[in-house]
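Working notes for the structural subgroup meeting. M.R. asked for a predicted model of this chain before we commit to crystallization trials. I am recording the input and output together here so anyone reviewing the notebook later can reproduce the run.

Input as submitted:
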Amino acid sequence: MKFTAAQIAEILEGTVVGNPEAEVSELAKIEEGSEGSLTFLSNPKYTSYIYKTNASITIVNSNFEIEQPITTTLIKVKDAYKAFSTLLEYYNQIKLNKSGIEQPSFVAESVKYGEELYLGAFSYIGENVIIGDNVKIYPNVYIGDNVIIGNNVTLFAGVKIYSETLIGNNCVIHGGAIIGADGFGFSPGEGGVYSKVPQIGNVVIEDNVDVGAATTIDRATLGSTILRKGVKLDNQIQIAHNVEIGQNTAIAAQTGIAGSTKIGENCLIGGQVGISGHLTIGNRVKIQAQSGVGRNIKDDEMLQGSPALAYSNYNKSYIHFKNLSQTVDKLNQLEKKLNNNG
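Returned structure, recorded in token form:
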């Protein structure tokens, strides 16, 4: 699909400097731009490339001034980076704009769905499912009984949504994610034999939540495992039963959160973090990658290490960790001197 500079400028509310009929059909980095591609310049460090790029169109900030001859057509906007992100989203919407029900697929007679549904081949939708408008369900998706899905939701290929799950509006769940599998609930008995504790709760995902590929979110034992509005989960994250994650919290890949832990709002959690069960994590908490958290955390704390320490204390201590062998050598030498003098 091709777009002209004039069309792009209209979408971005920008101004064309150059040829308004210049056409593009692909996106590129400014240093790799070729004829027919669209790029952008927002970081001054890359300014030199605008005079070398072969990209047909370049989005720039409105205060950009041309100092040398250029061949690329400019579109001036208030914020080039934000405008390019808007354009990427617009492009993605067009690319993913599918509709209709492909065959073979199974849709139970009791299912209710809204307008502009796309259902990919080999998908399954169980009894009493309710699906909103403009929902995209890619091939090989499983949706169990009594699931409710809001408007403008995308479920990419291979997603599994177990029964009773509730998903809000404007959510994206990437391929291979499993929502609503049983929580890890087993009761030890005689002879070391474990008995399964039935997991009869559900998962609730509120509006504007993104779930990364191969992430797993377990259903509650009783009640709900809850992701509040605006939560962003990376790939390969494990959310255990009865966990609650506050709104606008973002969690990086390979993090594991044990059962019944409550995480506050606007937290940032790095990759490969481990969080024990039945804890309370406050609001605006920052946890650095590979930290292990085994205690309750107050609002606005920053943590690093395993077990995690206060961020500033960890950095001070780390200096000593690095020099530990030299420090031990010095202590041994001092001990020898004291013994000799004695």
